[in-house]
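Budget justification, computational time. The allocation requested in the original proposal was used primarily to generate structure tokens for proteins on the priority list. As evidence of use, we reproduce two of the resulting records. The first is shown immediately below.
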Amino acid sequence: MAVYKIFPSKDTTLYSLYPTKNTGLDSILEIYNRTSYTDPLYISAAEVARSLVAFDSTEIADVIESKISSSQWQSNLRIFNANSKGIANNSKLFIYPLAQDWANGTGKSNYVPITENGASWRWIDYVSGSKWTTSSFGAYITASFQTTNPGGGSWYTGSSTGLKYEITQSFDIRSTKDINSNVTDIVKSWYSGSISNYGVILKWSSSIEYNQSSSVEPDMSLFSVDTHTIYPPQLEFRWNDYLFNTGSSTITFVTSSQIVATFPNNKGFFDPNSIEKFRLDVRPQYPNRTFQTSSFYVQNYLLPTASYYAVKDLYTNEFIIDFDTTYTKISADDQGNYFIIYMNGLEPERYYKFLIKTSINGETLVLDDNYYFKVING
């Protein structure tokens, strides 16, 4: 029922065609295999780009130790599509934990001359003179490159503990091109110290990379942490903190599918660092006529236990937090229904809205009744 997001401490793209080029401050990350270029140095091979993304270990530890209240949690890497093309059915993307640390650098894709400080295809840090390992790998560590152009990262493919370090996501012609992959085992290993946290590398499968066929040219452009949009990469933590304990309260479940739901403590404006407990007041829209000493309209009811919330961006109409039967389940106490939102995962200076999903008497309802709010700076 809780969702918390952290954002990259650094990211960049490695280009085989430009072995010393750094793009650590570019607004776009790229992952591709291209055959249509004319550089004579590498004319015998396709051009390959891979992306690196890293998250701060202190932030990861803080989420796990201070915020997650359940042993049942999941962590997903989410990176959003800017412009993708050439992606055929069953194009498989791989995500691995990196085996070497690297420097972000200060380059951008369009800088002339190119910036060489920071990570590139050949270097983990050009300034210090440190290169990617290309031989004599440690246990479970590998790399992939052409012998005439060594580099491109080094990464773990497995572990002695059986945790999953090879994460895949398949795309086809019509599927969404956003990356949304479960990397929980990788994050747990970073947190436990089983492997050092150097971030992850994203690359196409070995059957795609260096393929010189013009029919195999997946080209994915993704928003980086330096984007000026609302789509920076994120490591999203979800955990189940659902509670249902009404104590000795006499509050009852609503039985009519015609209901009115309001948020009595929605102030409308919220700080991006706040943690908010939103309460729901629920009542039948048309209560039965019976004699009673208090108003029908002040009595609160409970939604069915299988009720969920979602958050949408008001302008784009995209789900920021989608309905989830495990992680966005609505809780209840002796005052009524509630759920908790961590505002840090919402871009400031934007409007959002809540949606509520439930099922009453076999009828699925999605309540979308102008439940608006804004996250503000300061």
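The second record produced under the same allocation is shown here.
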Amino acid sequence: MRLLTTDQRIVHGQRLHEAMRSWAAEAVVRLATERANTVRHLREHLGNLTQFSAQNRLSTPRMPVLYLFSGADLLTARALSPGAPAYVLSSALPFGDARCYLYDECRVRALGKLREFVVAWRSTQFAWTNTDFMNSWLKEKAPGTNTSLGVLPILLWSLAEANETVVSLERSPTSRHAAVLRTDRRTTVTYISLSFGRRVGAEIALASDGTKWLGRNHVCGVRLDRVDATAGVRVAPDAAVECRRCVFAHEAGVALTVAGACLLDDSVVEHAKIGIVVNEGAALHARGSTIQLCGLGINSKAPIILENVVVEECGRGVVAKQIDERGDCALQEDKAEPALDDRARARARLRLARRQAFGDTASPDVSSDSESEDIDGILAAKLKRHV
């Protein structure tokens, strides 16, 4: 392999930067001409975001922005925080290769994929893009290089659309997954290509209100901290998951299914037909946690460890092959009637307030016409379904 001298590397870098700048400028003009309505709607949308942010003081001037699960959506972050000196975006999509813009074929291909992205983005009112489509578009190999097109075409076009010119592209000295773009306005855009699924050996399906949040990831040794999942969580056979300060619920099914290894720490499992199901051969260690308002609190086909655990206000308490009780546990007897005490009412009020704050509909079993909604009625309706 022939090594480049310092002067040669400088010249090569200048060629790359100029190639990226010329492609981005061409992309802005071509899209504004070929997709005039789409670009006009996009600019109006971004203007509305900026106005909304200013009116509600959403952004802090001169503070950097971190945007996780961003894909290539730099424009939204910039519209909401227009004065930020730095933007850090992170997603599982590849970054791409700047050498693409040295080759005519690759420049044409990148422009075509950019068109597809913008059209698809417009179809969702610039709210989101389909992950599968993004993978098929941006993981395609770029002609003239050994890597994929990645998000770089979208980032370059986004900066040019915002009237910023790229002056340098650097790879992060601290991470092989990160790349840094710098502009003539001293704005820094760092993109980190990192997938949660990279460390996983099993499947975790996390869903909230029926919509997959993390989707299906293959993870091992994952920690979930303060996750609120209302449509159930499943820990697959070869996964090891630690859940801290989480809330799991699933009124239509099982809130937490453990087929691998799970440490449930200082968490709440509630409002489910079955709170926790532990499959044969799995392992559950629950400590400092509460299982409440379920048809059946815990159903385990494997030995489980319960440490300072409370199971209450369920149709049935715990059905388990073997229980290792540690500390101060309070496990509801199977024949005990579900309680409607002050603690249960307080928790119901909290959940009701949370629903109303987020605009969710009230329980279908209870009318929500007044502010003084019958808390006892809510509890009774839930318990009636579960008992």
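A brief technical remark on that second record: The radius of gyration is 26 Å.
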